[in-house]
Design a protein that fits this description.
45% helix, mainly alpha, two-stranded antiparallel sheet
């Protein structure tokens, strides 16, 4: 109960300070230090560190909806009323980012650009049930691989593969040559903060970030996490 109150307090802070028409905008705290350019796939939103990002964009809003869903799930477990109705958030999300012509999502409300990384959040957090979207996204995944994503994109994507029953694709991702195998090739005895020593300007070579591969190799029911 105590932790739920803290979750609600945090979400309320975003809701009151940054939410407008059911989307987060005017963010001055989006952490781009951990999202280097080489992992952005041309993400067409100005998220440079040290400036306010006025535009609503898909990355932070995907995380926001996912956080609201988790708060509602916690409330259900505690037999409390849901934190808030997520339907208006989903509606605004689709209205601003969905591209009907290709069944994928745009990076932001002021761009037509569609990126693999932007859609990885949508897929990972199960924000779109359209089968054509899933088909198109899995094609993007095959073309780009998880080694083209930074750490905070990859875990949701892998969980999305579990939730959608794509065990074989999950195995291919875990064994991708440019991911954990690269860490081993670079003589890693611990997990790095990135896929390789030079993939981030301040890559830590002793970091728990990429250790989550163990979650997907353990003998546990991952679907119980949803």
């Amino acid at each position: 109960m105590q932790n739920f109150a803290k979750v609600v307090k945090l979400l309320d802070a975003y809701r009151h300070n940054y939410e407008s028409n059911c989307l987060l905008r005017n963010l001055d705290k989006w952490c781009v230090v951990e999202w280097p350019k080489n992992f952005q796939h041309g993400y067409d939103v100005d998220i440079r560190e040290g400036k306010v990002c006025e535009e609503a964009h898909i990355a932070i809003n995907s995380y926001y909806i996912a956080a609201v869903r988790i708060a509602n799930r916690i409330a259900s477990i505690l037999n409390l009323s849901q934190y808030r109705d997520e339907a208006p958030l989903i509606s605004a999300f689709y209205k601003s980012f969905w591209d009907e012509s290709c069944h994928l999502f745009r990076d932001g409300e002021a761009t037509e650009h569609i990126s693999f990384v932007g859609n990885s959040f949508v897929y990972g957090f199960s924000l779109c049930s359209d089968p054509i979207f899933e088909k198109n996204f899995l094609k993007m995944l095959e073309e780009n691989g998880i080694s083209s994503l930074s750490f905070f994109c990859t875990f949701p994507l892998l969980m999305g593969l579990v939730q959608n029953g794509h065990g074989e694709i999950l195995k291919r991702c875990l064994s991708e040559d440019g991911a954990w195998k690269r860490i081993l090739r670079e003589n890693g005895t611990t997990t790095f903060e990135g896929w390789g020593k030079d993939t981030k300007w301040n890559t830590s070579l002793f970091h728990l970030t990429m250790s989550y591969a163990a979650t997907f190799m353990a003998d546990i029911d991952l679907n119980s996490l949803f």
